[in-house]
Amino acid sequence: MDTTAIGSFPLLSAAYDLKERYFKIWDLETKEEALAEYLNWEASIPLELAKAFKPIPVAWRTWRKYILNYFDDKRITNAFTESFNAKIRRAYRNGHGYSFEVLRAKVLFSDAMQKKVRIAEQVKVKRKQRFEEISLARVACFDLVASFDEPEYDIKTVRRIATLGTYLPTLLDEIDRWPI
Fold it and tell me: How many CB atoms lie within 10 A of CB 126?
């Protein structure tokens, strides 16, 4: 941003600097550093800008533990989920008669959104006695040694279609096609 133009507007310049300092918090390495920098940042908000920046301290008070989890290892956020829910809310505002929960369920659980794969499973199937085995068993008078020679179950390969859940690329493509 052109800092010479901002310099003419002190309040705008202060807001810009606050925003930039807030974004730099996310570049820190540890929870402790991030929390200390956030607290310094929050204390530096001028009264004139307190109302504009109020959602950030409120979120930190409510979700501090979870916000700081970002610094644990992999820097994973729930931004995807928030973006997805925002798109559903937009569809909700444009549609009539659906609740947000119904729309989300329709999107997440519709068959078209599911990722399906073919799998082969090994399953135990109870062995059926053949006619020859039945008459042999009668002749042997239920000889226990003979009955333990062969297993009671056969192993068979069963092929089926498994559903892995909502396939996110398909879901995002579908949501992006929704009218805004």
Answer: 7
How far apart are alpha carbons 30 and 34 in whole angstroms?
6
- Residue of 1, 3, 4, 180 lying closest to 92 (CA atoms): 180
Residues 141 and 151: beta-carbon distance below 8 Å:
no
Residues β-bridged to residue 120: 159
Block residue for tokens 């992006």: 176
Q: What single letter denotes the amino acid at residue 59?
A: A
Extract the tokens encoding 41: 């940042």
- Give the C-alpha distances (Å, rounded to integers) separating 88 from 104, 140, 169, 180: 7, 71, 16, 11
Which of 69-73, 90-94, 123-127 has the least mean pLDDT? 90-94
102-145 residue pLDDT tens: 777 766 667 667 778 888 888 888 777 665 555 555 555 555 54
Average pLDDT over all residues of the chain:
78
| Angstrom distance (rounded) from CA 45 to CA 14 | 9
Element (H, E) at 157: strand 153-166
Residue identified by tokens 């659980």 is 109
